[in-house]
From TrEMBL:
It comes from Marinitoga piezophila (strain DSM 14283 / JCM 11233 / KA3). Keywords: Cell membrane, Membrane, Transmembrane, Transmembrane helix. The chain crosses the membrane at residues 30-54, 61-83, 89-107, 114-133, 145-166, 178-198, 210-232, 239-259. GO terms for cellular component: plasma membrane. It comes from the Bacteria. Residues 3-133, 147-275 form the EamA domain. The keyword Transmembrane helix applies. It is a multi-pass membrane protein. Its main location: membrane. This is Putative permease, DMT superfamily. It is found in: Cell membrane.
Amino acid sequence: MHYWLAVVSAFSSSITSVLGKFSYTLGATVTQILFLRFFFSFLIALVLFMGFGYKFKFKKFFIFGSLGIVNYGIAAYSFFLGLQYLSPAYATVVYFTNPIFVSLLQTKTTNRKLNFYNAVAVGLSFAGVLIANMGEKAFLQNESLIFGTIMVLFAAFVNALFVVTVSENIKTKYPNPLENSFYTFLGTFIYYFILMSITNGFETLSSKFLLSGFLLAVFATFVPLTLNYFALKKLQSHTLALLMPLELIFASVLSAIFLSEQFNVLKVLGFLMVASAPIIDITSIESQESNF
């Protein structure tokens, strides 16, 4: 049962790039898409926050609101900015270098050192991105491909910083995921509200953007986080991480069905290399832990 929750979470997350791309076809800007996404996410979290009778605590809001701005503000904005110039499946592949960034950053905060398998995983991941990039160039002959790739890679790196920062110490101090989600989405909503006001985004905000914004909030934000939380009650973190590459497959299939995205041998090979890199990395960690 808990394995299926993790699989459904991966599928739910895979629609992020597809819905984001669809929103662009409607004329929405990056800021407008993300404002609506986190406006609805905040409303869902607010209903649960009030329903469970939680009391507002400024310290928790400051911590998780700030973390939300880093991850869902800076990282998400960079991802969607890059998505303007990339196909959804390719953008998902580039972003999936995230576990490798986490692995590298953890060596700076823990006693864990990179071994041969870790190094192979890092090299395989970035080689996969380069090969997939070559395949993507067959369909997009422009310099924007490079800019889009850099933006999504930056988003993956910032998200990795967020993951490493949210250490076990913070999880132990503030263990309630629903309460933490409320503060995270509140901080992110305020961030994008200010950004929308500065950029005059409200003036061109259209009701036709609401559906995709709501779907992004539910299926790409709230549902994956909730399902992962329940899955982790029974599954180990490394088991969940091994299931994450399924998101690449789902994103590719959805892109082919709804956006008629084209594929070639180089793109598929690059996708497989990036997907296999976290498996190699996490398997090596599991092997190390079994030796102790």
